[in-house]
Amino acid sequence: MLEMRPDCERCGADLRADEPGAFICSFECTFCAECAEALDDMCPHCGGELMDRPTRTGKTLARNPASTERRFKTAS
User: Fold this and answer.
1) Based on the number of CB atoms within 10 Å of its own CB, is 17 exposed (0-12), middle (13-18) or buried (19 or more)?
2) Average pLDDT estimate for 38-48
């Protein structure tokens, strides 16, 4: 089951599990549409292709909630 991470790892944008617009690689690195485009649909971590992440809605989302662990790291 996908983790459904809540944010873009590059810019920190919120990415809801029940809405389209998130892109993932095979390791579930997660990016918003704008960052995926800027990265030419290639994951900067593993070099894998970024693909549309499926959505999770309704009862399925209620039974299997998205992750709340944010991955975006602000510059210190």
Assistant:
1) buried
2) 97
Token pair 């290639």 in the structure block, residue = 42
- The contacts of residue 55 (CB under 8 Å, 6+ apart) are 17, 18, 19, 20
Angle at 36 between CA 31 and CA 42, to 5 degrees: 105
Residue 76 has pLDDT above 70, yes or no: no
Q: Which DSSP letter does residue 67 get? A: P
Is residue 37 scored above 60 in pLDDT?
yes
Residue 34: name the closest of 16, 4, 8 by CA. 8
62 burial via Cβ count (<10 Å: 0-12, 13-18, 19+): exposed
Integer CA distances (angstroms), 37 to 57, 60, 64, 70, in order? 25, 29, 29, 21
